[in-house]
Amino acid sequence: NQTPECYSYEDCKATADWLLSQTDIRPLVGIVCGSGLGGLANMLKDQVVFNYKDIPNFPQSTVHGHAGRLVFGTLKGRPCICMQGRFHIYEGYPLQKGVYCVLGGPSFETIAECRMLHRMGADAVGMSTVHEAITARHCGMRVFALSLITNQAVMDYESKEKANHEEVLQTGKDRAMQLEQLVSTIVIRIEHSNNYA
Ligand SMILES: O=P(O)(O)O[C@@H]1C[C@H](O)[C@@H](CO)O1
Ligand code: HPA
């Protein structure tokens, strides 16, 4: 296993599919065990254990005291998964990040603005979501936000492309079914977790 430049959706799906095919356990909770805390995984009953080196596309633990094992099992009857060893940016792994930046709108960003935002670390730009998330947190709500990336930001002065609302609406339509399924699944899982609380 070599550290890739980045992990694509396909890489991650291959890893997940492989793991799911190896065990019937479907974890509700994931626990990442840091230095010296790998023993937490020993609390799991009915363990199914994988060494990181045997898992397709999986990074390797390099830090002393990180066993490099993925442990499935149950904790107090609830299906869980423990990572005995985690990964750090200083080990050379790419950060799987997505920074959403909000601007006031209603006009789309200029090319100069897109370039500036990109340099500042933004991966996506929009005109919503952040305000709602801030307000909801202010009210003490737990927040999960999900943004569909509907169009590419135009970064090139030579480009003939221009962000437009028709494309945004079309992509929304194209992905509606997947989003409906994703959101329903998330809602079901939230109810499920709350039942255990
Ligand atoms: O409400 P959202 O964030 O989906 O709406 C976006 C922002 C603008 O109103 C419009 C741009 O196409 O879509
Ligand atoms: O390109 C965009 N910019 C800002 N807001 C947006 N909402 C959808 N697409 C965009």
Give me the CATH fold name: Rossmann fold
Task: List segments where confidence is low: pLDDT < 50 over at least 5 consecutive residues.
Answer: none
Strand order of the largest sheet: 1-4-3-2
CATH superfamily (homologous) name: Nucleoside phosphorylase domain
- Proportion of helical residues: 25-40%
Give the tally of structural domains.
Answer: 1
SSE sequence, one letter per element: HEEEEEHEHH
User: Architecture in CATH?
Assistant: 3-Layer(aba) Sandwich
| Helix vs. strand class | alpha/beta
- Compute the average pLDDT: 89
Write out the distinct hetero groups bound to the structure: the ligand O=P(O)(O)O[C@@H]1C[C@H](O)[C@@H](CO)O1, hypoxanthine
- Largest beta-sheet details: 4 strands, mixed
Q: Radius of gyration, rounded? A: 21 Å
Number of strands: 6
Shape: globular
The CATH class designation is Alpha Beta
Quote the beta fraction.
Answer: 15-25%
N-C termini distance? 39 Å
For this entry, what is the oligomeric state of its chains? Answer: single chain
Number of helices: 4
Pfam families: PNP_UDP_1 (PF01048)
Family: Belongs to the PNP/MTAP phosphorylase family.
Organism: Takifugu rubripes
GO biological process, one term: nucleoside metabolic process
